[in-house]
Amino acid sequence: MTPPTLDARERQILEQVLRCGFAGIDDLAQRFDVTPQTIRRSVNRLCEQGLLRRVHGGVDSPRHGNLPYPRRQILNLDAKRRIANAVAAFIPDGASVSIGIGTTPAQVAVALRAHSRLRVITNSLNVATALGGSPGIEVTIAGGPLRPTDLDVVGSGAVSCFSAFKTDFAVFGVGGIDRDGTLLDFDVAEVATRQAMADNCRTSLLVADASKFGRPAIARGGRLGDADHLFIDGPVPADYLGALDADRPCVQVAASAETPARQTGETCS
After folding, report:
1. Which of 52, 86, 149, 250 could form a disulfide with 46 if both were Cys (CB 3.0 to 4.6 A apart)?
2. Which whole-number Å values give the CA distances from 123 to 52, 81, 147, 157, 234, in the listed order?
3. Do the bridges between strand 137-141 and strand 118-122 make them parallel or antiparallel, or are there none, so unpaired?
4. CA count, 13 A, side-chain hemisphere, 9
5. Alpha carbons 83 and 233: distance in angstroms, whole number
6. Is 31 exposed, middle or buried (0-12, 13-18, 19+ CB in 10 A)?
7. Backbone φ/ψ region at 82: left (φ over 0), alpha (ψ -120 to 50), beta
8. Among the residues of 169-247, which ranges form H helices?
9. Predicted confidence (pLDDT) per residue in 105-116, tens digit
């Protein structure tokens, strides 16, 4: 499936609804300083593509689960690429890396293509495709039933694969981060796979753009403080700072055009 093409306002509307769960037509019109009729045209286009659902007074997400992979690819793309570049700068040549499912880890794979002597273990065909053919990068992919929408393998096959290796780094995303620091996904098999990655690496790297904070997902597993490093595209929201441990994770904010890459805390390395 080809990712839909959205204009800047449509993209921001979609990101707001996915982050907050609902957006009112009048509130959106005020935010973008346009008429309600203009907002309705944008909303109608998003609904026609199945990205949002019209409800009384506004729009919400059309489903409780995750959006299809091609549609998630276009969300917060600049932030995901900045996070990916920061991770790629952090991982040295010659490392072994496990890379999980999701659109941000897939961007990390793209950013790693210039590396050499990498050994990559993944359960994502998107990651394997991004790295396949790159000279000096060896890719091992987990076996098992392929999820046709996301093109990945989760559950026992992926758990067994990740458990067979001890990698230098594990790169994984999450469906959402709850305010108490609980890490959330949309399926218990996704949680089990992510935890197998974290349990079988020397340094764990959680990658999450700002939309993941407060995003609801039903399956829980692990906490924010379990990760060694958190790569994000902006500061941790103030009401989530209490979920951080004293020195874990090391928060690394990806560079933007205006702001250089930086770390919060003196324990980052």
Report:
1. 52
2. 29, 20, 11, 9, 28
3. parallel
4. 15
5. 6
6. middle
7. alpha
8. 188-199
9. 999 999 999 999
Residue 120 bridge partners (DSSP): 97, 139
Rounded to whole angstroms, the Cα distance separating 131 from 233 reads: 24
Place of tokens 């997400």: 61
Please write the tens of the pLDDT for every residue from 191-200.
999 999 999 9
* pTM, rounded to two decimals: 0.76
**Distances from the Cα of 178 to the Cα of 46, 52, 127, 147, 220, angstroms:** 27, 23, 27, 26, 9
pLDDT in tens, 240-263: 998 888 778 999 999 774 444 444
Q: What are phi and psi of 220, to 5 degrees?
A: -110, 150
139's tokens = 């890719």
What is the DSSP secondary-structure string of 118-155? EEEEESBHHHHHHHTT-TTEEEEE--SPPBTTTTB--S
Answer for the pair 124, 161: CB distance below 8 angstroms, yes or no: no
Query: Two tokens at 95?
Result: 């490392």
β-partners of residue 229 are 205, 250
Instruction: Output the six-digit token pair for 242.
Output: 């209490």
